[in-house]
Amino acid sequence: MVGGMLLHCKSLRRFEHSGGWIKALLEEAENERMHLMTFLELSQPKWYERALVFAVQGLFFNAYFVAYVLSPKLAHRIVGYLEEEAVNSYTEFLVDLEKGVFENRPAPAIAIDYWRLPPDSTLIDVVTVIRADEAHHRDLNHFASDIQCQGYELKEYPAPIGYH
Ligand SMILES: [Fe+2]
Ligand SMILES: [Fe+2]
């Protein structure tokens, strides 16, 4: 959302195209929000978990905004590594679901709708597609950083399309 917003402002300011990066980054933000909406249907967060998100959002959004203004290549690199960690965490979660540590419940309706899953899908199917999303986010953000580390602007390399 921060990157998409800043590139949106830059596009307006400079009267130039973004190479599809605004749409790609805003879609990534929307996709992440759908991960939250999906997990919200599976468990209701406690008050202290909500408070944590509130505090982290207040700090992280602003810190990330400053980081993106100062160094977009660093900002994308950080997200690339965070997404890699997300892939690892979801892999561990899948192992636990398969072992029965956590109950493999039916997929929430919102997830079946959003990812167009078969009606009899389970939590394992949902976590598998979410992990694939995170792998796309990882690749996209490392790619965005690589482009700029090599001295090019994002708009010189069109954003990969057709992903969440
Ligand atoms: Fe996510
Ligand atoms: Fe992600």
UniProtKB/TrEMBL annotation:
It is an enzyme of class 1 (oxidoreductase). It catalyses: 2 a ubiquinol + O2 = 2 a ubiquinone + 2 H2O. Its EC number is 1.10.3.11. Its main location: membrane. Its cofactor is Fe cation. Binds 2 iron ions per subunit. InterPro entries: AOX, AOX_sf. It is found in: Membrane. The keyword Transport applies. The keyword Iron applies. Transmembrane segments: none annotated. It comes from the Eukaryota. Keywords: Electron transport, Iron, Membrane, Metal-binding, Oxidoreductase, Respiratory chain, Transmembrane, Transmembrane helix, Transport. Belongs to the alternative oxidase family. This is Ubiquinol oxidase.
